[in-house]
């Protein structure tokens, strides 16, 4: 029987540990199990997190095994090789597909009925890999996708316009990687078209600003990795937000990665687009309006992922 207030995090590196920390503080779960190939690392992280429980909400945090994931409502997979300076997310594909071939069958063996949330990179490819290896229903396999990229765009737009980033409504879609695109055509600030709001704030060179902001989003991971070696706080907050949508059955719209069947003309591929996320996982993939340029960019992003999928053995 599924325990919706029990969560497993597989992989206790920088990203996994940061996700566990954000989830511990969220109050969403009463039980959190950490699983790692290095059992000692998982035990140390569990101990460290547990010492913070008196400042949060009562919960049990412990290092466990795949058996402990069997009844989890959400299973978060962060395990995999880290992206190195100068390396793209897609460069990680063969290493991490190999790692997933060890992890995902262990979950399939235990007939897990929870939602599988993939965070490891390249996330779109690995979401597809997890779906195929697990045999789980498509709605129960979600990638963190471009949720963080979208947050980065909102953050940068908020700073550019000197407005609360929560009032900015815009999406990054496509591959979580170099071919992702910003959907400028529908971007707005509390219902005011983006170009109009920019002019209200005294910004008139829209094309240059959009190019600079997009590049800031696309290249931010590379910049962070160059400066500190890895990115983990932003994705940890993104994972917490996705978990909130699932546990609370919010039916919120997030740009997660999931299987598409004809939406945007894309078939049999996991890619990030606005999606209604709730207690059952993927409730509905939404087809937002794109202008001709954006549609072409999305097609190009999908073609790049398709080429990678053809090169891997699943």
Radius of gyration: 19 Å
- The count of strands amounts to 16
At CATH's second level, what is the architecture of the domain at 3-143? 3-Layer(aba) Sandwich
| CATH class membership of the domain at 3-143 | Alpha Beta
From the helix content, strand content and strand pairing, which structural class follows?
Answer: alpha/beta
Name of the CATH superfamily of the domain at 3-143: NAD(P)-binding Rossmann-like Domain
Q: Write down the overall mean pLDDT.
A: 96
Low-confidence regions: none
What sequence of helices (H) and strands (E) makes up the elements?
EHEHEEHEHEHEEEEEHHHHEEEEEH
Strand fraction: 15-25%
CATH fold-level label of the domain at 3-143: Rossmann fold
Can you summarize the main beta sheet?
Answer: 6 strands, parallel
**General shape:** globular
Question: What strand line-up does the widest sheet have?
Answer: 3-2-1-4-5-6
- Number of helical runs? 10
Report the end-to-end length measured between terminal Cα atoms. Answer: 29 Å
Helical content (DSSP H or I, runs of 4+) = 40-55%
Describe this structure in words.
The protein has 314 residues and is an alpha/beta fold. The chain has a domain at 3-143: 3-Layer(aba) Sandwich (Rossmann fold), CATH 3.40.50. It is built from ten helices and 16 strands. It has helices spanning 14-26, 39-50, 93-109, 123-134, 147-161, 194-200, 206-218, 220-228, 233-247, 292-311, and strands at residues 3-10, 31-35, 60-63, 72-77, 115-118, 141-143, 168-169, 172-173, 181-182, 188-189, 192-193, 252-254, 257-261, 267-272, 275-278, 281-285. The protein has a six-stranded parallel beta sheet with strand order 3-2-1-4-5-6, with helices on both faces. It has a three-stranded antiparallel beta sheet with strand order 7-10-11. A three-stranded antiparallel beta sheet has the order 12-15-16. A hairpin with a 2-residue loop joins strand 10 (188-189) and strand 11. Helix 5 (147-161) crosses helix 7 (206-218). The longest helix is centred in the last third of the chain and has 20 residues, at 292-311. It is globular and about 55 Å long.
């Amino acid at each position: 029987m599924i325990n919706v207030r029990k969560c497993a995090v597989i992989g206790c590196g920088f990203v996994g540990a940061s996700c566990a920390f954000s989830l511990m503080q969220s109050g969403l779960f009463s039980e959190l199990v950490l699983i790692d190939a290095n059992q000692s690392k998982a035990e140390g992280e569990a101990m460290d997190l547990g010492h913070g429980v008196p400042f949060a909400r009562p919960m049990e945090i412990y290092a466990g095994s795949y058996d402990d994931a069997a009844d989890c409502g959400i299973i978060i997979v962060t395990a995999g090789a880290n992206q190195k300076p100068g390396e793209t997310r897609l460069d990680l594909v063969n290493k991490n597909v190999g790692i997933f071939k060890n992890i995902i069958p262990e979950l399939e063996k235990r007939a897990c009925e929870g939602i599988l949330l993939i965070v490891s990179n390249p996330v779109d490819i690995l979401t597809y890999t997890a779906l195929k290896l697990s045999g789980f229903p498509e709605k129960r396999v979600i990638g963190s996708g471009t949720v963080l990229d979208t947050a980065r765009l909102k953050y940068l737009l908020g700073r550019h316009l000197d407005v609360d980033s929560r009032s900015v409504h815009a999406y990054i879609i496509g591959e979580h990687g170099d071919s992702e695109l910003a959907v400028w055509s529908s971007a707005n600030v509390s219902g005011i078209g983006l170009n109009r709001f920019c002019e209200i704030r005294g910004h008139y060179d829209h094309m240059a600003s959009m190019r600079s902001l997009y590049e800031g989003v696309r290249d931010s991971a590379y910049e962070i990795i160059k400066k500190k070696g890895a990115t983990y706080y932003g994705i940890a907050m993104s994972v917490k937000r996705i978990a909130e949508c699932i546990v609370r059955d919010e039916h919120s719209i997030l740009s997660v990665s999931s299987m598409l069947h004809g939406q945007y003309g894309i078939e049999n591929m996991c890619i990030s687009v606005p999606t209604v996320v709730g207690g059952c996982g993927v409730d509905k993939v939404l087809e937002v309006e794109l202008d001709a340029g954006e549609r072409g960019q999305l097609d190009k992003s999908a073609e790049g992922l398709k080429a990678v999928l053809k090169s891997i053995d699943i």
